[in-house]
Q: What sequence folds into this?
């Protein structure tokens, strides 16, 4: 500060620094310059700048509005899609249930049919077996008669000791076997 | 800038005279001498500074307005940010939308004109700040104040305007004479405070720079110069940055008060 005072005094002493010395030319030039700048900025610059800023604000507002509309549309599509997916899922579940029911029905049907068929086959087999048995028995019976007669005739034709008796039986059994083999 | 001035000044007989001479308008040797009605209109360094500030202000705004793109960049971006700052933080923070729209160009011009006048002096080799002269700031302050009261009288009528301005409504009758006196002083203080605040701040700002430059001259030729020189240079750099901040703040204050005065004039007694 002391330096400033010294400087001021020194300058004033030589007629230099006096901030309050009238400068009417500066008053005129300041007024003229301010009015010129005011006129040009007000007429030529600020309207353009404000128009530009307003355009940008309008554009941003429009884009925000468009983005909101797009978002609403997207939300609507999403909701629609979700409801469709839910409906499709429900429909699929229903179809699966129906298919499962039908498959079960077919399975039961097939099982009962197979059981019926099996029963028929078994019955048929049983009947055949019974018939065969009956036939074999009848055949055996008639054969036994033949064989008895044959044996009795042979017994009568020769006297039997123990060894000849065994030979006789063995021969008889061998005859039966041959006869059976020839039949089959 | 100050260093350049200092270097120039150190060769003269009195460095202080040379330094402080840069705060006083002076004629250029090459410039013509213009005088109209006894008023010296010659292009002094102060006048050239005003022309330069006006030209830069118009040129930069012209560029910003001419080259408009949807996504701003460069000069357009800076100007738009500043214009938006003036619009939102100064004009529309005080005025309603209707008044703001009407008065924005004037207030923005006040802001930018003063900002450029304040800042041009910081450009190296320019060496003079017009707003560090009381006649420049007083001219602007009086212009603003006269405009404010003129529009106030035009809108509300002369008598009604002064009555509402000098006698706030709802005041007890006994207080009227005292308030009338206080309001007259308040009204007279408005242009005075506008002018002196800007002038004093800008002058102080440049004096600080000159003081630090002065230290270098005082220490020149002595051993102290090795300590003084870096410190002075550092402070000059710091104060130059600070001066730019002050240039902006003072323009804001001037424009803000202008807005308040115009708004008060449009709606007296509010």
A:
């Amino acid at each position: 500060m002391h330096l400033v005072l010294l400087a001021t005094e020194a300058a004033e002493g030589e007629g230099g620094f006096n901030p309050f010395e009238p400068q009417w030319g500066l008053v005129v030039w300041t007024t003229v310059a301010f009015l010129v700048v005011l006129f040009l900025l007000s007429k030529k610059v600020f309207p353009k700048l404000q128009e530009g800023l307003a355009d940008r604000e309008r554009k941003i507002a429009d884009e925000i509005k468009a983005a909101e509309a797009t978002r609403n549309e997207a939300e609507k599509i999403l909701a629609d899609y979700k409801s469709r997916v839910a409906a499709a899922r429900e429909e699929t579940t229903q179809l699966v249930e129906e298919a499962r029911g039908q498959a079960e029905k077919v399975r039961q049907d097939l099982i009962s049919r197979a059981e019926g068929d099996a029963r028929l086959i078994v019955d048929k087999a049983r009947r055949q077996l019974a018939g065969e048995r009956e036939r074999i028995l009848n055949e055996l019976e008639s054969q036994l008669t033949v064989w008895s007669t044959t044996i009795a005739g042979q017994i009568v034709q020769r006297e039997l000791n123990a060894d000849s008796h065994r030979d006789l039986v063995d021969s008889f059994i061998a005859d039966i076997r041959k006869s059976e083999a020839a039949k089959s | 800038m100050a260093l350049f001035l200092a270097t120039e000044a150190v060769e003269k007989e009195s460095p202080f005279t040379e330094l402080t001479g840069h705060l006083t308008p002076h004629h250029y040797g090459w410039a013509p001498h213009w005088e109209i009605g006894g008023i010296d209109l010659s292009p002094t360094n102060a006048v050239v500074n005003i022309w330069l500030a006006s030209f830069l202000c118009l040129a930069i705004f012209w560029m910003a307005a001419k080259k408009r793109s949807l996504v701003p960049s460069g000069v357009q971006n800076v100007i738009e940010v500043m214009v938006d700052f003036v619009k939102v933080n100064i004009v529309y923070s005080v005025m309603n939308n209707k008044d703001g729209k009407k008065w924005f160009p004037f207030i923005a011009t006040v802001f930018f004109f003063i900002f450029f006048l304040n800042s041009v002096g910081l450009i190296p080799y320019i060496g003079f700040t017009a707003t560090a002269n009381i006649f420049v700031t007083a001219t602007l302050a009086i212009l603003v104040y006269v405009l404010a009261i003129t529009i106030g009288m035009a809108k509300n009528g002369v008598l009604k305007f002064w009555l509402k301005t000098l006698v706030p409504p709802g005041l007890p009758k006994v207080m009227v004479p005292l308030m009338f006196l206080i309001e007259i002083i308040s009204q007279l203080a408005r242009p005075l405070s506008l002018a002196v605040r800007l002038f004093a701040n800008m002058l102080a700002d440049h004096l600080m720079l000159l003081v630090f430059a002065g230290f270098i001259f005082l220490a020149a030729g002595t051993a102290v110069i090795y300590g003084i020189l870096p410190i002075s240079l550092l402070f000059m750099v710091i104060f130059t940055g600070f001066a730019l901040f002050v240039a902006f703040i003072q323009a804001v204050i001037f424009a803000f008060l202008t807005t308040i005065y115009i708004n008060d004039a449009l709606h007296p007694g509010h």
Observations:
- Chain A has one domain: 2-183.
- Residues 1-15 of chain A have pLDDT under 50 and may be disordered.
